[in-house]
Each structure stands twice: as C-alpha cells, then as structure tokens.
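To the structural biology subgroup,

Please find below the input and predicted structure for Aldose epimerase, which we are adding to the shared reference set this quarter. The sequence is reproduced verbatim from the submission form. If anyone notices a discrepancy with their own records, reply to this email rather than editing the shared folder directly, so we keep one authoritative version.
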Amino acid sequence: MRDVSLNPVQPDQAQPVTRAAAQLAWLDDPAIAARLVTLSAGALRAVLAPEVGGALAAFYEVTPDGPLHWLRPAAAEAFDVRDPLRMASFPLLPYCNRIRDARFEFDGATIDLAGNDPRFAHALHGNAWRHPWRVGARSGNAVDLHFEHEPDASVPGDWPFRYRARQRIELRDGALYITLSAQNLAGRPMPFGMGHHPYYPRTAATRIHAEVQAMWHADADVLPTHLGPHPAVDALRAGMSPDAFDLDNNFANWSRVATIAWPDEHRSLTLRADAPFDHMVVFAPADDPQLCVEPVTNTTDCFNAVGPREQVGGCVLQPGEEIEATLSWTPHHSSRNFAI
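Predicted structure (tokenized):
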C-alpha cells in the first residue's frame, strides 16, 4: 500500500530554491506590493499576503549574495489567482488536511462539507485559507491578521459554525513567530483543529530531523488507516532525506521540535510548537520539488477517526471558548551536525 496519493499542486508550482532573487520579482510589481505587508528585524524579512488566505508569501534573510530563503517563496502567479497552495505557508482552520467524503457526524447531526471546492474529493484544510484576512495592528516587525467566518447556508459545503480567528506574525529574537488563535462564536459546541502549512526549499542534501513515536499509514486518498511503525520514524530521528520515502503522512506524539537542515550550506531551520500542536505532517512526495513539515493539532480526518484523543487530536470548543498557541521558526548558521 502506498503512503500517499496524487497531490493537487503541480510540480512546476514549487521550484526548489535557497538563493534566488528572481523568486522575489513580484515585490517590484506595484500592483502586488500594495497588497502585501513586509516585516523586518535585522536581516530577516517576512512578507504577508493577507488577501491570499492570510498566507505568508516569503521568509528570508537579506545577505550580500542576495536573499537567503528559509521557506519556499511564493510563485508570482499565486497573487493573480489568490492561491495559498503556491505561497510559503498558510493557516489551516478550523481543521487540518482532509475530511473523508467531506462529511462527519457531530453532536447528533451530519456536517456536510461537500461542494466547497470541486478540485478535491474530500474537504481540505478548512475554510480560512480560502478567504481574505483583515490587517489589524501592525509595526515594523509585527502584524495581526484577522478572519471571521459567518456561515452561509446558500453556499454548498460552507462550515456551519461561526468563529473568529487571528494570526499574530512577528519577527523577534532572530526568529519568525506565528501565534494562532480562534474563538467559537456559535451558540453551540464546535469541533476544531488548526495548523500552518509551510513549504521548505528542497535540495538533494536536505535533511529532516524530528523525534516522533509512530506514523499514520494512509490509503490512496491520503486518509489514515492505522497508527503504527514505519521506517520513516527511525529515519526522522537520524535525519531523513525527503527522497527516502514517498510521504504525505501524519506523525503522532512528536516532541514539537523539528529541524530542516541543509548541511552542505551549513545552515538549518528549527520549528518549535506549543501544545496542542501535538501532530506533525511530512509531505515529501517522490519526484517532486515540494517539501512540507507541518505543525498541526489534529491528524487527517480527525472528526471521523477512531482512536484515543492523544493519537487523533482536535478538540471541541464550547460557545465563547478560545484557543491560542504559538509556532516559531529559528534560522541557524553553523558548520556543526544539525541533528537534534
């Protein structure tokens, strides 16, 4: 059984890059630049595209040799079509990854999400990434982005619960911090999960280091079948090449720390996550330049999955209840071994 299925993003939408000024040519387009928010702190830069699903368009370092990319920068065409899948990273709310057949049972009712995107057979990544976010308070190194969802029964597959979400994006202490928060504004309990979907530069030398306990095996639709051992678990602990396996899988009970390293370039990027980001997705498809290591609060199809809560993740927010947690990405330059 394969661990992954076809990915909806085509390979030419994500070119591997670590240093490429041409990848930021869209910053020189006044029509695009006017819709962006650029944060700076020392040599670090973070570029936000609020209208494109509240996405991060680039995270890079200014160097004498040009921009050094810590995340894969957005493709120029992503701004015209407003496609977060071609951005550097984007928020996932009110659930992460797929929901089987776009439906699940909750609180005695069937929640039908079918029709929210004809490209996908299963509901994908929630709905916040499909809408513009509003810019709130901002400074030179930080910005708040806001999104509020009001259900619309006339829209097929619309999420039927009202909620409010916020991203606090900040450059400080030599790192990128993103604090995600959400509040249930509905008059009834709401199932919930959240995460972020970062793409990293992928080269032949790239290695991923993470302490994980087990992997969710998946069917041809990238939906989980069972939690168990896999060679990727030990490979991640040792430093796994993205080319080692054909992966689009959830890993349970990780240490909430992962490092993406480019040892030939003597640099690495460390991802840290607060609870309840207790799950990690590795998307490293074969023969494809894309690479994602995603911090999430729930496994794929968590609303339908059967298993202990610590293995499945997700939660239920009561009316008025709010949840908040922080993610950070810290760049490192070093000639030492990057293993955790």
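Summary notes: Residues 147 and 324 are 15 Å apart (CA to CA). The domain at 17-203+262-278+301-333 is CATH 2.70.98.10 (Beta-galactosidase; Chain A, domain 5).

Regards,
Lab coordination
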